[in-house]
Amino acid sequence: MKQLILIVCILFSGWVVAQEKASEDLKVGLVLSGGGAKGLAHIGALKVIEEAGVRIDYIGGTSMGAIIGSLYASGYSAAQLDSIFNNTDFDKLIQDEIPRSAKTFYEKDEAEKYALTLPFDKFQVSFPSALSKGQNVYNLLSKLTAHVSTVEDFNKLPIPFFCVATNVETGKEVILNKGYLPRAITASGALPSLFSPVEIDGVLMVDGGVVNNYPVDEVRAMGADIVIGVDVQDSLRSRDKLKSAFDVLVQINNYRTINDMVKKRKRTDIYIHPKIDEFTVVAFNQGDSIVRAGEREAQFFKQELLDIAARQKGNLRKPVNFVTSDSLFIKNVVIEGLEKYTRSYVLGKLKLFTPGKTSYKRFNEGINNLSATRNFQDINYRLEEDKNGETSVLLNLRESESNTLLRLGAHYDDLFRTAALINVTRKRLFTNNDIVSFDFIVGDNIRYNFDYYIDKGYYWSIGLNSRFSFFDKDVPIDFIINESISPTDTQLNQISLKYGDVTNQLYVETLFRRTFLLGMGVEHKWLRYLSETIGIDDDNNPRTIFENTNYFSTYGYLKYDTFDNSYFPNEGLFFKGDFHLYLFAEGMNTNFDQFSISKAKMAYATSFTPKLSLIVSTEGGFKIGGSTTNSLDFFVGGYGYKNLNNLIPFYGYEALSLRGDTYLKSNLTIDYELFRKNHINLSGNIANVGDRLFTTGQWIDGVDYSGIALGYGLETFLGPIEVKYAYSPEVDESNWYVSVGFRF
């Protein structure tokens, strides 16, 4: 009888245990720590967790853990995340690198002149709060989470989620589980000194890792029975590995978080700590290795994960309808936060006409273009799609309080020689949309450039420019041949020429068909050049003045520029046309007759491979009338200098070697990027230069001038550094060209 009772008890207890297991459904929480690039190991760990069949019910993350966690919570699989981050250019993402095609023509010129820009308010130099605003990160996350853009409560995501940020003013922890998801996770990942603080509801926030880099208790409080944690935090480094200020900053921040992990690790049921000490927090270029490291470490817990999955029900994730189309139909734009700038100014920078169709790429370029103006400290937006598939843009802007900049640059070429640039730029001087900029250039030749520009976006913008240029150079005697001096008057082949130019312009311009820049204006130009090689003036000084005249003209221009890089383009199309009508003159040129000068240039760049590019260009110009005025003829030769009047670069000849009132030129360049930002290029150009080539038919009678060049170029923060060896078969001579820095 006792045996029977024992058997019954055993069977009953087994039945009870079976029933408990059948009714059991473990809730699993996932904790993902911050760690910069090391956070990519989260993806590898998630792959193993998925393979084991574990259903994640709650996710909490900090910094990079917040980014990975939020995307997983919004419906992406580990494999999808691996693909997304494997195809992401983190250099561009972190540095807020803005595609050149996204900038306005004015901003392209500004970006390709200055090497360093610093705040200069009240004439005091300061430094930016961070290297990057994080705008590209925000743009990417907004697109990736577009399918959940209407979710305000993060508990209503496919997997309930929260992230941690730090109140930068109080140092207290902020739990973000409501609002706009991309905004929350960029706040959580705003690593001090790397990314600017993020403002949400009046609270300024930085990286959550400062206060809580591993929110295990908060995940447990969501209702998790089991907590799986992936810890990718940096360990303390020895002095030989602390090689930068950023390394020291990370080390200081790690003091507390590493000590906290002693207790937090014990409160984690499955603690995955990938072996990634060899990687830094910015080693995004080693992402594949970091992902594999996370996968390897998680494999050690595979059986435990399988046991957890066996105690869960409904492990299959519901399918998610991601936004796969790159097309957007924007029906309206709502802008908040404007005080100093106008709605038309903002829409002009965004390049948006509403209602109208655009793409995520073009929209993001517009956002970056708005950011590039430096007029906005914060650009917060969200896209809301209605049932008709039409999108409303809700744009919240925080205008920058800084309105003065100090900018510096440096350059060397064979014409202007050494030059250092000091610039002061002031925004909002008279109106909300204006900008005043003054360049003072010192070195071998003193110069200046003054700009006042009222930016009206798509409406007619107004500009005023005044500039002075000067150089001295040995030039062929042909440069100064006129009625008073002929080649037989001197036995010299060359003379030393001092060339001065002051140009003042008042103009208006507007975007035409969104991509062309159309402008017109009036111009005053004072030209003066002389030589101390020959002649004696009225004061018995050894010099001869060949030109000292004020010219007055009206002009128009049309520009189109989609080059991705102005110096080493891989793709794009460039066109520039210019027409000047010289109406009258005052000064030394007493025989002045009205004349006009037309010129145009077109270039095309394409890539055969990511490293091999071809650039083809053709250009030309001619003068009509004004046979007695040679000062504004085309002077061809040289390389590396900023365009001035009608000085045209040409391989194989020194600057200003060839002269004529007409020129035609074609150029072909093959560029190979040997390794990142290092270029080897081979160029060839041909030209016809002379007087009245079209009326005499000489423009098609053959090629008069040609040259080839082999060069090496390096892209630096100063601008391109280029060295070229050139040869021309007509003169059977070679030339070296050296150009350093942006041209100004």
**Tally the helices: what do you get?**
15
Uncertain segments are: 11-22
Q: Could you estimate the helical fraction of the residues in percent? A: 10-25%
Overall body shape: elongated
- Beginning-to-end CA distance, first to last residue: 106 Å
- What is the residue-averaged pLDDT? 88
Report on the biggest sheet.
17 strands, antiparallel
Proportion of residues in β-strands:
35-45%
**Total strand segments:** 34
The structure class reads alpha+beta
- Cα-atom radius of gyration: 33 Å
Description:
The model is unreliable at 11-22 (pLDDT under 50). The strands form 5 sheets. The chain has a 17-stranded antiparallel β-sheet, with no helix packed on it. Strands 1, 2, 5, 6, 8, 9, 10 and 11 form an 8-stranded mixed β-sheet that branches. A 4-stranded mixed β-sheet has the order 13-12-15-14, with helices on one face. The protein has 744 residues and is α+β, with helices and mostly antiparallel strands. It is built from 15 helices and 34 strands.
Provide a short characterization of the protein structure.
The protein is of the alpha+beta class and 744 residues long.
Notable characteristics:
single chain; 744 residues; alpha+beta; 17-stranded antiparallel β-sheet; 21% helix
